[in-house]
Write a structure and sequence with these properties.
Distance between the termini: 59 Å
Structural class: mainly alpha
Number of strands: 0
Bound molecules: heme C
Helix content: 55-70%
Shape: rod-shaped
Low-confidence stretches: none
Mean pLDDT: 87
Radius of gyration: 26 Å
Length: 118
């Protein structure tokens, strides 16, 4: 192979390499916003631990409501007053003040996603 052909081959492979990088970046941009699924273990558990479990813990919970496990939080959301109370401006849970709407939106999305555990 003479050196001219060698350079041509080098140029072509360089071009192919670069263009494949470019198309990979464009494809990433086409994916759009990242949609996350809300799960109890990743998201809701932390919200309950930080805002509810101090009063609604395993030992002598307020109103007899223990919010320290997946099964109990799901039950309170599905069959109880959890959603009403966290969104109740006049009588919110926690009693110290209604949670930020972004936090309440996570719980709403968890319900919409079907109460996933993990
Ligand atoms: C400072 C203590 C405290 C914290 C923190 C707290 N609660 Fe409560 N919770 C109470 C008390 C006391 C009651 C009973 C009186 C009432 O219903 O207002 C209650 C009642 C409830 C009820 C009504 C139970 C029923 O059977 O109707 C729900 C639902 C509830 N809490 C959910 C939550 C959730 C969810 C959180 C966290 C986002 C939370 N609470 C945080 C003290 C607390």
């Amino acid at each position: 192979m003479n050196s001219q052909k060698y350079y041509l081959l080098l140029l072509i492979s360089l071009f192919l390499g670069l263009s494949s990088c470019t198309s990979a970046i464009l494809e990433d941009e086409d994916i759009g916003p990242i949609v996350t699924t809300i799960k109890y273990n990743d998201d809701v558990k932390n919200i309950a631990s930080a805002n509810c479990v101090s009063c609604h813990g395993e030992s002598s919970p307020q109103a007899g409501l223990d919010l320290s496990s997946y099964v109990n939080v799901r039950f309170a959301a599905e069959n109880g007053n959890l959603l009403n109370r966290i969104n109740n401006q006049a009588n919110p849970m926690p009693p110290s003040g209604i949670l930020p709407s972004s936090t309440r939106a996570v719980v709403d999305q968890w319900v919409a996603d079907g109460y996933l555990e993990n």
